[in-house]
Q: What sequence folds into this?
């Protein structure tokens, strides 16, 4: 049974430590398969085993949230709730808090003009303290009553009350004041970071102009159906995937691909949701519903990327769980033991030092900045047309030391052309091409398409065979056809019947004069095609197929993919098909080695001489050729077993044929192309532009992100350690302790936002 996913938005959630506690406690609810609290998007995602248990589990989850964060407003994303009142209430609470803070600051300033020993100063100090820190005190009290003691509210309350107890009124107020100011700036920084990341994926179209009778009506994209006709005006976002029926325009694809140069589209072109129409008016026929469109899938990927956490994130969450109680216990021991064993030292002196311990012990800087850093890296990658499905994959990219490539469609363009036709045994070149086209007519492989394209260029445009007819032919179907060697097609091209005849050549059932039997059609993975047409058994494939069928063949030293043809067990010749290397492939291999990648490898099903030639041209370290799909997996398993445990191996493929290897790799990167559903499903990283050089960019972004994350860890723990030591020795006061908490958190948050900037890598 598939787990049911439920999502809750926690509006007003501002405590990262509490967010971690909500996640941990939600995981322990009976019936919950997994729980993930994304502090950046304020979203709690639950996977529930039994659909019948959803109501109970949601009620228990809401109870946990209310106990930890009573002021948070819970929004169920599956329910249509008007959030206007929630936002208005939050805005009113914020205004009240700011007003109380300002009043408290005014009273705090007044205390400096009053006598130290006067009762009035004490009263004004208490009033200032309550106005500034009343909210923190109330939260602390509520949490204590619920059994939740060790959080930042408790720490600040104890520290400030302790300062009052030893008559350090100014410092007690200062702790609360700077904590509240720091928290306000911290919230602003986090919100800014959230907005920056969200803005990157602001590609969701808001409306579609759908044709209704003879006019166009503006509707939500989710209301549009397949085959509906929509109108896209200049400046509008393309709302859904479709095919252009009328119009020519330039479209901005940067939101999906990261490419700045606009792309020209016209009648017959495929266009995807998320593009921006720049100048022309386009009439488009919708080919996919909004939920299956490219823009919808991309949004879902990026928005849910934070659910797959990096090991560093998980470590910090566990670290924070134990860090605060340990430091708090240390503070208690620091307040009690030294004055008992050190002569002339007072309890007030060591209590003050213990209070410094309490103030600086909050782990918020780590709990906030690390997820923000990873999410910023994912957002930055999306700006470059690189979709990373989770923080764990971004972290794994940092440790990649071996990169394995597929050849076709990855390092080469996958656009094949027939470059040579070599007929033998009394077959003509026309006959050889005819038989190859007949064999390949039902295949969607790029090589098959290149043979059909060559045939069409010689004998005219061909119509596609309907899928239902193909299925029938695979069993046995009596169809009509004309063989190209029975008629002078060049002369017919000038006659009125040329179109009809050329279309009928490979499109059965278009002519009623000649009978053709097409049967026993089968595609043999890793070999080629075997079929029967007009009683003639046709084989079209590689040398392995010829050997398998015991056909005496003629080998060739020509560089390219060679398709051997046999008719009735007699070798007819071969066709050479060449594929172009991508323009940035050579620089990709070179740049990977510059980055310190130890080994680059290519796995291909192509002939050894083709694989070796391309490998040498690109300077790839190892090339393994003539591999069947299952042999690719076996070879990859061997390569995988040779790496060290800390090193990661990256596989780059086309996302369809390479799905098993993509799934096996530490990181699978698919040359997905725009709208490639199979690529998006199969891989961990999707390269939207089909450029292998984006692999280099992805690794650079991963390394930059990891560097920023570790900067934050070292900086936060380093500053806290220094202040803890200085506090214990009596050299640090409350002011430094407040900086060690909220100041460090603020700096770490701003540092995390650097991960979004990927202009210079």
A:
């Amino acid at each position: 049974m598939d787990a049911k996913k439920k999502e809750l938005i926690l509006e007003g959630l501002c405590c990262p430590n509490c967010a971690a506690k909500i996640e941990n406690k939600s995981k322990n609810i009976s019936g919950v398969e997994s729980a993930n609290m994304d502090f950046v998007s304020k979203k709690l995602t639950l996977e529930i085993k039994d659909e019948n248990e959803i109501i109970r589990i949601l009620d228990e989850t809401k109870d946990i949230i209310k106990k930890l964060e009573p002021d948070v407003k819970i929004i169920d994303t599956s329910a249509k709730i008007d959030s206007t009142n929630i936002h208005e209430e939050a805005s009113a609470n914020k205004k009240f808090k700011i007003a109380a803070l300002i009043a408290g600051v005014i009273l705090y300033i007044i205390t400096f003009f009053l006598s130290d020993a006067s009762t009035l100063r004490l009263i004004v100090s208490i009033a200032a303290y309550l106005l500034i820190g009343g909210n923190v005190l109330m939260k602390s009290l509520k949490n204590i009553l619920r059994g939740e003691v060790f959080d930042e509210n408790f720490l600040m309350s104890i520290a400030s009350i302790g300062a009052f107890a030893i008559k350090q009124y100014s410092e007690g107020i200062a702790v609360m004041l700077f904590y509240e100011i720091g928290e306000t700036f911290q919230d602003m920084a986090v919100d800014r970071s959230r907005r920056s990341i969200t803005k990157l994926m602001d590609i969701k179209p808001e409306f579609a102009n759908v044709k209704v009778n003879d006019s166009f009506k503006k509707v939500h994209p989710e209301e549009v159906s397949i085959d509906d006709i929509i109108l896209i005006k200049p400046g509008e976002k393309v709302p859904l995937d479709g095919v252009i029926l009328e119009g020519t325009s330039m479209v901005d694809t940067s939101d999906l691909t990261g490419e700045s140069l606009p792309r020209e589209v016209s009648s017959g072109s495929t266009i995807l949701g998320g593009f921006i129409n720049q100048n022309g008016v386009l009439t488009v026929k919708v080919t996919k519903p909004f939920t299956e469109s490219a823009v919808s899938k991309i949004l879902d990927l990026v928005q849910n990327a934070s659910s797959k956490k990096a090991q560093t994130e998980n470590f910090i969450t566990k670290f924070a769980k134990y860090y605060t109680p340990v430091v708090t216990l240390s503070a208690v021991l620091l307040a009690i033991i030294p004055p008992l064993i050190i002569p002339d030292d007072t309890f007030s002196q060591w209590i003050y030092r213990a209070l410094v311990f309490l103030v600086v012990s909050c782990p918020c800087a780590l709990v906030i900045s690390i997820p923000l850093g990873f999410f910023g890296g994912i957002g930055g990658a999306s700006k470059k047309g690189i979709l990373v499905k989770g923080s764990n994959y971004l972290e794994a990219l940092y440790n990649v030391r071996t990169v394995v490539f597929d050849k076709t469609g990855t390092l080469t363009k996958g656009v094949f052309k027939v470059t040579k036709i070599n007929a033998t045994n009394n077959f003509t070149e026309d006959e050889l091409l005819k038989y190859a086209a007949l064999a390949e007519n039902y295949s969607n492989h790029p090589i098959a398409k290149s043979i059909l394209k060559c045939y069409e260029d010689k004998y005219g445009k061909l119509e596609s065979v309907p899928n239902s007819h193909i299925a029938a032919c695979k069993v046995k179907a009596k169809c009509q056809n004309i063989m190209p060697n029975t008629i002078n097609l060049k002369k017919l091209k000038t006659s009125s019947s040329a179109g009809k005849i050329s279309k009928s050549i490979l499109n059965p059932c278009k002519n009623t004069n000649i009978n053709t039997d097409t049967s026993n059609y089968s595609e043999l993975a890793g070999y080629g095609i075997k079929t029967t047409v007009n009683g003639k058994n046709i084989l079209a494939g590689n040398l392995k197929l010829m050997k398998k069928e015991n056909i005496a063949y003629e080998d060739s030293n020509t560089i390219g993919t060679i398709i051997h043809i046999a008719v009735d067990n007699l070798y007819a010749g071969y066709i050479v098909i060449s594929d172009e290397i991508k323009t940035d492939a050579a620089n990709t291999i070179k740049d990977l080695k510059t980055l310190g990648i130890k080994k680059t490898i290519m796995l291909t099903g192509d002939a050894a001489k083709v694989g070796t030639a391309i490998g040498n041209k690109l300077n790839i370290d190892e090339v393994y050729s003539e591999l069947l799909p299952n042999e690719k997996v076996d070879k990859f398993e061997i390569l995988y077993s040779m790496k060290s445990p800390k090193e990661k191996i990256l596989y780059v493929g086309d996302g369809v044929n390479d799905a098993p290897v993509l799934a096996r790799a530490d990181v699978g990167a698919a040359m997905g192309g725009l709208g490639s559903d199979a690529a998006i499903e199969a891989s961990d990283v999707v390269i939207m532009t089909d450029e292998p050089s984006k692999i280099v960019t992805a690794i650079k972004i991963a390394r930059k992100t990891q560097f920023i994350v570790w900067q934050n860890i070292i900086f936060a723990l380093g500053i806290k350690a220094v202040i803890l030591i200085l506090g214990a020795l009596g050299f640090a006061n409350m002011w430094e302790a407040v900086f060690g908490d909220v100041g460090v958190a603020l700096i770490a948050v701003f540092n995390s936002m650097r991960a979004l900037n990927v202009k210079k890598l």
Notes: The two ends are 45 Å apart (CA to CA). Confidence is low (pLDDT under 50) at residues 462-516.
